[in-house]
Amino acid sequence: MKQSIYRAMIELTNGRFTSSLLYKFARSKLSRFAIAPFSKTYRINESEIENELSSFATLHEFFIRKLKLDARPIDVDEDSIVSPVDAVIEDIGLVDNDRKITVKEKDYSIAEMLGGDEEAEKYKGGTFMILYLSPSHYHRIHSPVTGKVKRQWTLGKKSYPVNKWGLAFGKDTLSKNYRKISEVQFDGGELAIVKVGAMFVNSIERTHVNETLQKGEEMAYFSFGSTVILLFQKDAFQLLPSIQAPAPVKVGECIGHIV
C-alpha cells in the first residue's frame, strides 16, 4: 500500500512543469536568498568552499560549488582506488551470474542499467558500490582511478528519488533513471562509473573532455543530490576491509586497491 501511494505521488509531481519550475528558480537571482538558509540547514562546512558564500549569484551556483585545492587530498598509493564523490556508501556487493545486483533487498539488472547485454556481461561476478549524495554534499564527481576513457553514453529520461525512500519504494530507480555512464580502462581492467540523475532535474554535466583521466581529477557535476554506481570487473578490485555500508566517504579517500 505504501509503495503504491509513494509511486503515485512521485508520478504526479515528477513532470516537466514542476521540473521546469525548480530548474528556473535555482538559476534565478531570487534564489540567492535561499543560499545562506540552505547552508545553515544542511550544516555545510563553509570554510572548505573555494569562494565566499556572498559570491554565489544563484542557488544553482552554490549547489555546484568548488572546494579549496587542499580540501580533498587524494590518496597517493599507486594501486589505490578512491571515492569519486562525497557521499554515503549505501551498499556494496557482487554482480551475480544473471548480471543483477541486490540493493536494499531489490534486484536491479546491470544490462538494463548499462543499456545492453554485451555491456553488462563484462561485469558479471564483479563488485558494485552505491554512493548516495544528499543535497548537502559537495556535488562534483572525480575519477576513482587513473586510466583511459573508452566510452561515454547517456540513457533514460525521467528521474525518481534515489534516497532511502526511493530505493525502498521506487521502481528500478537505479537502472531506469536518467543516467550518464563513463567506462574507464585502468590497470585492473574496466570500470563503469554510472552517474544517476536525481528527482526533478536531469542535470549531470561533464567537465572532462580528454581521453585520459588522472586519479582524483574532476569528471562532472550533479546539479542536485544523486547517486554514483561503481561497477568493477571480477578480480579487478579489492575492497578496503574498513569500508562498510552504510558509511560516509569523501572524494579522494581510499576505498580499495587494484588487484
Automatic annotation (TrEMBL):
Cofactor(s) of this protein: pyruvate
Main location: membrane
Pathway in which this enzyme or protein is active: Phospholipid metabolism; phosphatidylethanolamine biosynthesis; phosphatidylethanolamine from CDP-diacylglycerol: step 2/2; Lipid metabolism
Residue stretches spanning the membrane: none
Domain of life: Bacteria
GO BP terms in the entry: phosphatidylethanolamine biosynthetic process
Site positions per UniProt: Cleavage (non-hydrolytic): G225, S226
Localization: Cell membrane
Cofactor binding note from Swiss-Prot or TrEMBL: Binds 1 pyruvoyl group covalently per subunit.
Pfam families according to UniProt: PS_Dcarbxylase
Active site annotation, chain numbering: D86 (charge relay system), H142 (charge relay system), S226 (charge relay system), S226 (schiff-base intermediate with substrate)
A GO molecular-function annotation: phosphatidylserine decarboxylase activity
Single GO cellular component term: plasma membrane
Catalytic activity: a 1,2-diacyl-sn-glycero-3-phospho-L-serine + H(+) = a 1,2-diacyl-sn-glycero-3-phosphoethanolamine + CO2
EC number(s) stated in the UniProt entry for this protein: 4.1.1.65
Keywords attached to this entry: Cell membrane, Decarboxylase, Lipid biosynthesis, Lipid metabolism, Lyase, Membrane, Phospholipid biosynthesis, Phospholipid metabolism, Pyruvate, Zymogen
Residues recorded as bearing Pyruvic acid (Ser) in the entry: S226
Purpose: Catalyzes the formation of phosphatidylethanolamine (PtdEtn) from phosphatidylserine (PtdSer).
Family assignment from sequence similarity: Belongs to the phosphatidylserine decarboxylase family. PSD-B subfamily. Prokaryotic type I sub-subfamily.
Complexes and interactors: Heterodimer of a large membrane-associated beta subunit and a small pyruvoyl-containing alpha subunit.
Official protein name in the record: Phosphatidylserine decarboxylase proenzyme
Annotated source species: Cytobacillus horneckiae
Lineage, highest ranks first: Bacteria, Bacillati, Bacillota, Bacilli, Bacillales
Name of the gene this protein is made from: psd
